[in-house]
Amino acid sequence: MLRIAFAAALALLAPIASAADTPPITTPEALARYLRDTPIERSPLGALSPGARKRFLASLRFGDRGLGGFATDDLDQTLTHAQTEAVLALFGAQAYGDGLGLPPASYARRQAERRADAARRGCAVARCPESAIEQRYDTLVLADRPGPDAASHAAIAADYTRLFAGDLAPAALERASAPDLRLLARAARVALEADPDGRAADDLARVLEVMQSRGMVGDADFLPLYRARVTTRHFDAAQRLAQAHPGMAVSVLPALENPPAAPTEPTALTVSADGRHMTRESIDLDAPLRIVVVAACHFSEDAVRAIAADPRLDALFHQHAVWLAADATPPDDAAAWNHAFPGQPIHIAWRDREWSMLESWAMPTYYVFRHGREVARWSGWLGLDALRAELTKAGVPY
Questions:
Q1: Which among 145, 204, 245, 254 is most buried, taking Cβ atoms within 10 Å?
Q2: Hey, what domains does the chain have and what are their CATH numbers?
Q3: Confidence label for 264 from pLDDT (cuts 50, 70 and 90)
């Protein structure tokens, strides 16, 4: 899984040709002209609520080749697929709308919730000001938190607690409007991404319980909570959720066998290729040579496939490397990798915090340790020649 500062994914994109009649928006200046010259009711952006539109526009990142990234959450949670594609077509990125957007019934339900809330507040749906909860949600997701992942995640967790503690009391949840409940659930998911051990999992469970009592959610909406329970290794709680909400359609968790009693080294889960069993194992970084590869993405698969096809590199990595996925990686993903690459199995960090010696979980990142001391590090997959060059610089024979 990609580790990012807030729950909506920032997809790093290369721009594609736009299907629209006008050239795609590729710079901040072009976006400013478009917003100035186009009435919002004539723009696909008008389908977003004012708050959602503000957050989406704030998330846009432009590079030398046009749009370089955007947050998907408000598109996915408030628009249909067709509306999402129309918004992205403004930037020549409509192909990246695949899988985004609400089904028609869910969209109709949320529109009805917005109309009911607007009627209660006495404002027009398209012009209702943001509620106090939405303003706090903006503060949570739009804050700039530079620095290492650990510091950024700690800041998100602290901000979440400070901003929403008063909104999550039982009486406050019962009074909350349907749109605000949805924002509270999204805020909890943001905090879960940053701090799965914090209060957000229990908060999300309470919010979902209230939403379920109003008929606002189905089984699939409990999937982030299920994943959080797996990530924090509360496997029994995850299994109970799966039984209570079979519509999540999750696989049966592998049986955990023979966990070490008191590990003194960082540990990882190893999932069998058939997905039925997993073991927690200590990883010895004090060996004369250990290569840890943070992996699990498409580029990581390209790397392991190329390495496995090179006999010398395959032997080196088989003997000395640990392919390591972050703790939020589903066991199913590890089982699929291990089925495809039995000679280069991947492990899942028991908890990322055990691996404090790894500064970045960007994928793929290669760490070379000698007797527990990091001697080299590099990121990205640029092919075997580049890998050989980095290994040579690190003094690794192959």
A1: 204
A2: 1-129 (no CATH), 131-248 (1.25.40), 263-393 (3.40.30.10)
A3: confident
